């Protein structure tokens, strides 16, 4: 009995290790090539770690390429999208959480439907609408589009957090003479700060990753976000793998930072939701 | 209290009632306006494009062409191939994501030291931007800088190190593997949350009654997970079928259109050929197929749960 249990434990740990290796290997390889000097790139192609490492690729990408601008553009777009989406989603989520009104069910259904249909359908019409407004090849245009795409999910997320805050709190404030909006801003919103942070993070990551609409709406490197810049770089200078992977490592930083912040709450939060719903 | 002036009590309820009715809509208005302008209007417009000749570079285009695009679609071998590819791409990606996601969730549901760290590490791919995931895997398949072709050669599966993504007969495995890598965490997170909501005393009772771990899995775990799996697979299938990023980044539909899916075909038509009319017709077909799929699944699920009762 103890032998089978020991075997089971070993098999379990081995399986976990396999999953970890599979999950991390591509990222490890990205990092490895980005620090491999060019003269060793081909001669030590399949070695797990190069015999010499260098930060030249990073230095070049940061000093002599347009990547710092792409990075800044992406930061502006993702940051603005996250801010605007979270503000709008907080209002919407609050309404869904606290009010009973006619049409609420339809509203929720509408939000759900926007998450179901193929967004690639909207590529052509959105281009046609934004073009005469001067919002193609503009970061503002991207922020508007990304906010619309992300705000439905963000609203549901915020609703979930508001649902967890007892409504007696703002009832008490309103009896004391505050109007509802004041109560919302001064009492409910501060209590929902963890939810606000999670929503900011989710929307930021989604906007940081978006590629299809960025490719369609942005032309030229002046306004290019990170994915557009990286893909243009790949098709133009497809020989310099070290520099491309160094750029790739840079693109990974904001996403990983955010992930490390929220990953502890991931399963926990979803369990709470599952128990309730 | 009876001294309260009558006009005031008459007027205020009406104004208040109006305010109460309007209040929730004021909170919803910004989101509603934005979604209408950026999603619903373009959706309707896109449906109308499917029946019009809209080419960005042709100023004389714009007229109604009726069902011309759809007739052309029936003859378009690239589109028919993309339909078949979409089935294969979506089916295989979702299957592998579900299978490995379920295994991972079961493994993580067992308490062990370092579980928090292990969980953080295996969920990491989920945070990787999709364009980077695509590029990263394309590089791994590249015999010049990636190890995979060399490993396959060493195992005797490949005669000489060559790029999987350049071989028409197996190219689709590249994006499928990347999609699996990227999508496992999503299934694992969802299923792990569902596993943790199963009451623990059920397992205790079953083991007291002498049920083996395998029996417990099939008679407790699986029935509890089934509804979550069904709804996750439904949502995920629709999502993966629409998901063109990995294919555009890794193969751009090639070689010889072998990895072109309907979603990537729409993007190619709109982005490369700037033929918005035709792209919208393809998109409308995709929308119709996905709607039909969702309906079939929902009806099927309804039937199943009715039979249980």
From TrEMBL, chain A:
Top-rank taxon: Bacteria
Transmembrane spans: 12-31, 70-93, 105-127, 139-162, 183-208, 241-262
Chain ranges of the ABC transmembrane type-1 domain: 71-262
Cited SUPFAM superfamilies: MetI-like
Membrane topology (UniProt): Multi-pass membrane protein
InterPro entries: BP-dep_ABC_trans_perm, MetI-like, MetI-like_sf
Localisation: Cell membrane
Keyword Transport annotated: yes
Nucleus among keywords: no
Key words, A-Z: Cell membrane, Membrane, Sugar transport, Transmembrane, Transmembrane helix, Transport
Similarity comment text for this entry: Belongs to the binding-protein-dependent transport system permease family.
PANTHER family per record: INNER MEMBRANE ABC TRANSPORTER PERMEASE PROTEIN YCJP (PTHR32243:SF18), MALTOSE TRANSPORT SYSTEM PERMEASE-RELATED (PTHR32243)
Protein name per the record: Multiple sugar transport system permease protein
TrEMBL record, chain B:
Gene3D superfamilies hit by this protein: MetI-like
Keyword annotations: Cell membrane, Membrane, Transmembrane, Transmembrane helix, Transport
Ranges for domain ABC transmembrane type-1: 83-297
Stretches that traverse the bilayer: 25-51, 87-108, 120-141, 170-195, 216-235, 276-300
Topology versus the membrane: Multi-pass membrane protein
Keyword DNA repair in record: no
Pfam families: BPD_transp_1
InterPro entries linked to this entry: MetI-like, MetI-like_sf
Record localization: Cell membrane
Family designation: Belongs to the binding-protein-dependent transport system permease family.
Protein name: Sugar ABC transporter permease
Source species of the chain: Salipiger mangrovisoli
Lineage: Bacteria, Pseudomonadati, Pseudomonadota, Alphaproteobacteria, Rhodobacterales
